[in-house]
Amino acid sequence: MSSTSEPPRDIFDAGGRGLQHHGLRRANERAVLTLVGFNPGVSNADIARLSGLAPQTVSAILSDIERAGLILRGDVLRGRRGQPATPIFMRGDGAFSIGCEIGWRHLDVLLVNLVGDVLGHFHLDYDYPDASTIFDVIADAVRDLVEELTLEQHARIGDFGVAMPTNLWSNLDLVDAPAEQVRLWRDVNVMAELNERTGFDVTLINDGNAACWAELIAFPRPRPGNFIYFMLSRYIAAGIVGEGTLWEGPTGNSANLGSMLVGDADGQPQVAHLVASITALERQLLAAGFTVGKGLVADWDWDSFGPVLEAWIESAAKALAKVVFNTTAVIESGLVVIDGIVPRPVLQRLVARLELELAALPIASYTPPQVLAGHLGPLAPAIGAAELPLFRRYFSRTLADLAG
């Protein structure tokens, strides 16, 4: 195959959407950045062909963003057909972002660079998120993570994304938090609290949407334009990508798939959260006499759980199959991605069982979607919280992001 052949089109490829009008210079810059960011080593000619921009326009834009410190040029590639090509890459230290997940029983804070490398990570387990202390803990973690950066690199931290369950305050009874925490979380302004303590602009993102976005970025080329995503954590976080767009909805909680009604072991209506989550498994383990630690779920003694674990995998797969069917009845998607805070072998067993449950659904006209295990595991929400603001700042060409 010729080295100049065009690769399969990825959902982040510009696809001729670059425009020549002078007033859309910023959109064109982002089209070029997107092609470089999601096609490492792409050449000037490749960018012009994939974006639909004139070669002279591409060259001018590349010069501008190179001066801004966002890209770098590799060694000239010689000995191939056509003119020698210079591969172009994103500069990892061109920008940095902080990602944070405030979970039901854990906190993750991390620092990523422009190419998505995780440069540092802080983790804390707790019984419930304490609104009276957690913001100071996050601020201390951020301070420790960025202290190794140079002054120039520190100035390139443009974003701080925070992933957490939507309306966390109204569901704190799920983790037996004291009643006073409901009032504290209901009245607190998370973005303002963290902005005051860190000085960074803060973006609040639903945890399922953040994790779904991180999964989209982590996919190898060509990335799927449509898929349904589940993060099986203490409860179920979920997200939907449709036609290359993260479906956040007006409140940022459009993919609250864990709240869909399924059925429990007795056939009674129950939300999927309480059937297919780690909390559901933990309750079954405790009822069977097992003791589980309060730290990382991955560190539990999974090999000892035997029939209890098998029963949970079966019930979780049955519940998720109903959620997937109901979702695909509204949103056409041929791919489901399952990730979680469980060990990888357990996740693979759940994926395999979900495939069986989908194939067994008694609907003649139904073609089950493909089911895959996610790429990132427990850190997906925090990684997505860092990556989504970076994308909006440097790559997105939606009108809202361009105006911002």
Automatic annotation (TrEMBL):
Gene3D superfamilies: 3.30.420.40, Winged helix-like DNA-binding domain superfamily/Winged helix DNA-binding domain (1.10.10.10). Keywords: Kinase, Transferase. One of its GO terms (biological process) is N-acetylneuraminate catabolic process. GO terms for molecular function: N-acylmannosamine kinase activity. This is Sugar kinase of the NBD/HSP70 family, may contain an N-terminal HTH domain. It comes from Devosia limi DSM 17137.
